[in-house]
């Protein structure tokens, strides 16, 4: 009986640990997320700070690093550090590079 109880307790503990790590693993792309998502995912960022992040992004362009969040009024470096594992910085795919113009060497090689 003790073994079954101990096994059940370990199973419950493992489930709780896995649930906690799944919640901590949620990430948010600060360049594409809406204010509601930013508010939900980031710690110590409520609705007004989340709206400020979106407004800053619209006015100044995409963030290049998580640290740039500290430029938003009401967001400090401590908040950035606390959320570092939740923040993703990305955006639209970079513009395609134009095809390279052939050089004399490549033009001769094609002949």
From TrEMBL:
Keyword terms: Signal
Presence of the UniProt keyword Aminoacyl-tRNA synthetase in the record: no
Signal peptide (residue range): 1-24
Keyword Lipid metabolism on entry: no
Chain spans, region Disordered: 92-111
GO terms under biological process: protein secretion by the type II secretion system
Transmembrane segments: none
A Pfam family of this chain: HHH_3
GO CC terms in record: type II protein secretion system complex
Organism: Vulcaniibacterium tengchongense
Protein name: Competence protein ComEA
Domain of life: Bacteria
InterPro entries (alphabetical): Competence_ComEA_HhH, Endo/Exo/Phosphatase_dom_1, RuvA_2-like
């Amino acid at each position: 009986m003790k073994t079954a109880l101990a096994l059940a307790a370990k199973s419950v503990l493992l489930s709780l640990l896995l649930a906690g790590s799944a919640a901590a693993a949620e990430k948010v792309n600060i360049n594409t997320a809406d204010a509601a998502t930013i508010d939900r995912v980031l710690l110590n960022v409520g609705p007004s700070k989340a709206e400020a992040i979106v407004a800053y992004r619209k006015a100044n362009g995409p963030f290049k690093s998580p640290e740039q969040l500290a430029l938003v009024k009401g967001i400090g470096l401590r908040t950035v550090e606390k959320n570092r594992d939740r923040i993703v910085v990305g955006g639209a795919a970079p513009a395609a590079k134009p095809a390279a113009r052939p050089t004399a060497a490549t033009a001769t090689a094609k002949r």
